[in-house]
Amino acid sequence: MKQTLTHILTIRSSVLVATALALLAAGAASAADRKKPRADGAFNAKPAKGEWKRDTLKLGDAAPDFTLPDASGQKQFTLSSSQGKKPVVLIFGSCTCPPFRRQMGEVERIYQTYKGQADFRLVYIREAHPGSQIPGINGGQAINQTETVAERMKLAAEFAKELKLTMPVVVDKEDNQVNATYAGWPNRLVIVGLDGKLAYVEKQGASFMPGEVEKWLKKNTPSAPATATPARTP
After folding, report:
1. Contacts of 217 by beta carbon, 8 Å cutoff, 6+ apart
2. Residue 209 falls within a domain, yes or no?
3. Residues 14 and 83 in one domain
4. What is the pLDDT of residues 45-85, one digit of tens each?
5. In 101-126, which positions are buried (b, 16+ CB within 10 angstroms) versus exposed (e)?
6. CA-to-CA distance for 149 and 94, rounded, in angstroms?
7. What phi and psi, each to the nearest 5 degrees, are found at residue 119?
8. Rounded distance, CA 63 to CA 183, Å?
């Protein structure tokens, strides 16, 4: 009886040790994977903590107005200036956000197709994965979290150049108010209609879906009335 109990305890101890070793190995493998470059040669650090903002946007509400500088610092863009003229596509993100970076080529294609029917603004916000390294940006060195407009202007300009983006780019200010108001972190797509109201609001954390923006543009431009029915995010 005593020998049997000892044998069982020995087996259980062996299982626990093996499980612990397997978990350690998995953790080591996961850490190693994070150090491996992605297809674009980038090293993605862990996502920033404490950046999520409460989403208060509702379809049909007046879009919160804002004025932001462009990436060159030479011009200002005020959202309400487009009201009654064209809908506005707002593209929130940063260069260290993998889904955002990966899909910006598609957004650029949509911009080239619809730039005559809608205004587009890439709104550069706080970094999604500070500490990441991306070829062609910041000299390939680790990209720290941005705290100033100057820092964002520099990264936004390099990001646009590296990805060959031609759409207008603006940067959020030090108070991060536009990002907070639109709950834009880590990435988000929003369309403001001709009437200045929220016509399309991508679900927060929806993994960035430019195809849905294109569907809205196909349906609502160029001849849609200012009071076009808002499109709901699937």
Report:
1. 87, 89, 110, 113, 114, 117, 118, 191
2. yes
3. no
4. 999 988 999 999 999 999 999 999 999 999 999 999 999 99
5. bebbeebbebbeebeeebbbbbbbbb
6. 13
7. -90, 145
8. 13
> CA 133, CA 140: separation in Å to the nearest integer?
6
Among 90, 93, 115, 114, CA closest to 102: 93
Q: What are phi and psi of 157, to 5 degrees?
A: -65, -45
Joined tokens for residue 167: 């759409």
Those residues whose C-beta lies under 8 Å from the C-beta of residue 110, and which sit 6 or more positions away, are: 89, 210, 213, 214, 217
The number of domains in the chain is: 2
Q: How far apart are CA 115 and CA 120, in angstroms?
A: 7
Q: Please give the Cα distance from 210 to 214 (Å, whole number).
A: 6
My answer on whether 162 and 74 are in the same domain is: yes
Q: How many CB atoms lie within 10 A of CB 6?
A: 10
Beta strand residue intervals within 13-112, DSSP E: 67-69, 76-78, 88-93
Residue 4 structure tokens:
């049997």
**Residue 152 lies in domain:** 67-220
Q: What is the DSSP string of 149-176?
A: HHHHHHHHHHHHHHTT--S-EEE--TT-
The sheet with strand 88-93 has its strands ordered as 169-171, 119-124, 88-93, 188-192, 198-201
141-191 per-position pLDDT tens digit:
999 999 999 999 999 999 999 999 999 999 999 999 999 999 999 999 999
